[in-house]
Amino acid sequence: MRLPAENDCVWIRLDRLRVFMERVFVALGVPAADAAVCADVLIMADRFGIDTHGINRLKPMYVDPIRRGVQDPVTRLEVVRETATTAVFDGHNGMGQVIARRAMALAIEKAQRHGLGMTAVRNSNHYGIAGYYARMATDAGLIGITGTNARPAVAPTFGVEAMLGTNPLCFGMPSDEPFPFVLDCATSMVQRGAVEIHARRGTPVPPGWVIDAEGRSGAADAQGVLSDLVAGRAALLPLGGAGKEGGGHKGYGYATVVEILSAALQTGSFLHQLAAVEDGRPVPRRNGHFFLAVSVEAFTDGVSLRRTVGDILRQLRASRRAPGCERIYTAGEEEHEAAVERERTGVPLSPSLQREVLALAADLGLPDAEVPFSPRPRPASAG
User: Fold this and answer.
1) CB-based burial of residue 48 (10 Å sphere; 0-12 exposed, 13-18 middle, 19+ buried)?
2) Terminus of the chain with fewer CB atoms < 10 Å: N or C?
3) How far apart are CA 146 and CA 154, in angstroms?
4) Which residues, in sequence order, are CB contacts of 323 under 8 Å at separation 6+?
5) Mean pLDDT of the chain
6) 349 three-state secondary structure
């Protein structure tokens, strides 16, 4: 089987890519129903053009930890505390997507009964894009909020040591448009996955993303940055950048909010306890998450809320544009347009990612028929 050359890019149909990821999870010992959930979360990222959290993350965030024995492919989810409107889960080091989907489903169920529902999780793993769980709520006509802590990667304002995770905070509101308002943002300038994308492409990390031990934040070699992040010689900057001039203290503050809500409510791990390494050996991540669902009907009728949300979004997009700018977007709009396009064209796989997929399939003994592409150049159309 010929490996792809450096200039060969392939575009893969969403359904083929999803089936491949599902087969990989099953080959790793994830039960079939749970494998479908994990693949569903990853393929949503690829479908929405969030390339940092789809097939790009399959090997480093899920395959490798399972094969190293530091993540359990079989999820044993336990409710350790519960009230009519709240619950605390212990994920016991299972699959983050499976844990998170169940936790948000319970928050939604409680909100539908009582107006509000909130759940908190400890001892979980990477749960994929936060927007997946917010969209679970908006699909049910509810408001959804979620966040998660993560391995240390972000320095506090005026610091250079990686202390906080990229700690996304996500809000989803239903609207009368073809898509909900979903704001899914890291509280850092970028996620680690964005640096990984630059490393795959061989392009430098832009200035203002990373700070080194001497406080410098200029452009840097992406592969070197990844190594420095692991070794503690560099850190990502909080949203707003270094110092207070660009508002970096605000990103730092929101990251801390997510850290607290992902650890304190559930008596979970935080900061360096999430490093996934002890004495030079890999250990479980022990991530925490939180999920909040709000019944619209507890406040107003659903039609009225969706119309108001839609009016706000439309008026924002119709406001005066800056010179040279063609459009103003609102959260969720670009993802919707990416999904429409990728339903037609498929998902792009870079040459390095193709090689990773081929090696992964061979290593797990998956038959050639389950590899989502033929190892040859393809045009930018569904494959």
Assistant:
1) buried
2) N
3) 19
4) none
5) 93
6) strand
Q: Which two tokens stand for residue 367?
A: 């038959």
pLDDT (mean) for 149-161: 96
Token pair 């492409």: residue: 201
Q: What is the pLDDT of residue 198?
A: 87
Token pair in block for residue 84: 């009519």
pLDDT band at residue 298 using 50, 70 and 90 as cut-offs: very high
Q: How far apart are alpha carbons 20 and 361 in whole angstroms?
A: 9
Query: 282's torsion region: left (phi>0), alpha (psi -120 to 50) or beta?
Result: beta
CB 237 within 8 A of CB 189: yes
Answer yes or no: are the C-beta atoms of 124 and 237 closer than 8 Å: no
In the chain, the DSSP E strands lie at: 10-12, 78-82, 86-90, 116-124, 143-148, 169-173, 181-185, 210-212, 234-236, 277-278, 281-282, 287-294, 347-349
Of 62, 119, 133, the closest CA to residue 94 belongs to 62
